[in-house]
Amino acid sequence: MKALFARRKSARSVPASRSLLRRALVLPAAAVVAVPALATEAQAGHQRTVNGSVAMRIMDHETFGANAVCNRSFDLKPAVVTVGGHVRVKAWAKCGGEIRVEVHYKLTLDPNGVVRVTEGIVKFFEGDSENTGDLDGASAFAHMILFPGLSLSTNVHVQNWNEGQPDDKADVRLTVRN
Ligand SMILES: [Ca+2]
Ligand SMILES: [Ca+2]
Ligand SMILES: [Ca+2]
What we know:
Strand content: over 45%
Keywords: Signal
Number of helices: 4
Bound molecules: calcium ion
Oligomer: single chain
Order of helices and strands: HHHHEEEEEEEEE
Signal peptide: 1-39
């Protein structure tokens, strides 16, 4: 946090045009996009854009023939989080005609620009179709605390515990960036 305050102080001491340029140089591109041109320094600290990406390796057990294996990687839509509010993120991928894996988490923002990732859980659905509501496994993941500019990843394993089929499974890697 010391570094953040120091940057703001130095930005104030230069003319407005140079201040904007300086901000563009020292903050990540996502933060510059999220800050309206006329925002004051105080307002700028009350909103952050959080980017994320997901990579999954999913296996669908097949009674006959080889198991289906699906590798899915994608970027998440940037989430704008405001102090006092929250954003719930949901992402999913499907595999083999019977499986859907969902990633859920909640984003909140502290006044000092720190983003918190909480209520994180990966859900494993397996049933008659990829749109099934049959929840056969779930794994919660630990909270993440993201200082401005910081990126963190977490790995989550989930499988079909409900029906005891270990070949129905997924390994998920979630990356979030403040
Ligand atoms: Ca199957
Ligand atoms: Ca299948
Ligand atoms: Ca099932």
